[in-house]
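hey
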């Protein structure tokens, strides 16, 4: 079953073409990754998928629904983990989840046990009553993941889920995603980490300058072009991915 279908998607910001005529499909239960450097168009494509911004041209359907015509219905069925920390600094860890549940009209009697369950899932149960300001960067990323799962989303969208994390925290997030994949949750993520794409993604779309250059499984891409996934990126773009990360 196709969960997301984009056809000839274009997004302009003034004279800048952030997304340049891309088409792709994402299937139920798979983890699909947009791989590329900052400025490749990954975050813009994701923003259109979760109805944060409209496309300039082309179409995007999520669950068969047009993102420009039925955004509210789509948003009720997805979870979003943003790149930036937008947790409420005046609330505790537990309160951040309970308050956020109101956006989905989840009754408190359901939100509270669900919040505790998610804190256990992201290994933050012992931090439930701690203020957000005292959390490490890795803990905040894990809490953002837990918050994105509050409404039991059919589709989880993650923008650079492990950006800026130390190796231990990054692996912790990867383990959470592996568990979600085992539950048949559809996941879309952006990343500029080769190891993350190889380890987590069933398929990757390699992007540069707003275009999808290739999209396939990591194993197929490596077999087709030779070397590891970073070598593939170098062959397709003429850039070494780590050299263009800022």
């Amino acid at each position: 079953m196709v969960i997301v279908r984009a056809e000839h998607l274009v997004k302009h910001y003034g004279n800048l073409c952030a997304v340049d005529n891309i088409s792709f499909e994402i299937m139920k239960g798979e983890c699909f990754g947009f791989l590329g450097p900052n400025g490749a168009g990954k975050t813009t494509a994701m923003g259109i998928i979760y109805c944060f911004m409209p496309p300039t041209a082309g179409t995007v359907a999520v669950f068969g629904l047009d993102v420009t015509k039925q955004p509210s219905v789509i948003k009720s069925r997805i979870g979003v983990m943003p790149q930036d920390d937008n947790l409420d600094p005046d609330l505790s860890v537990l309160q951040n989840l309970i308050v956020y549940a109101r956006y989905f009209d989840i009754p408190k009697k359901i939100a509270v046990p669900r919040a505790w369950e998610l804190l256990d899932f992201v290994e933050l149960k012992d931090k439930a009553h701690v203020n957000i300001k005292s959390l490490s960067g890795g803990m905040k990323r894990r809490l953002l993941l837990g918050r994105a799962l509050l409404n039991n989303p059919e589709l989880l969208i993650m923008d650079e889920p492990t950006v800026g994390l130390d190796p231990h925290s990054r692996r912790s997030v990867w383990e959470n995603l592996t568990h979600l994949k085992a539950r048949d949750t559809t996941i879309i993520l952006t990343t500029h980490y080769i190891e993350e794409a190889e380890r987590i993604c069933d398929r990757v779309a390699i992007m540069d300058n707003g275009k999808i250059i290739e999209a396939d499984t990591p194993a197929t891409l490596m077999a087709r072009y030779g070397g590891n996934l970073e070598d593939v990126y170098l062959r397709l773009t003429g850039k070494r991915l780590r050299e263009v990360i800022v």
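The chain has a mean pLDDT of 91. DSSP finds nine helices and ten strands in the chain.
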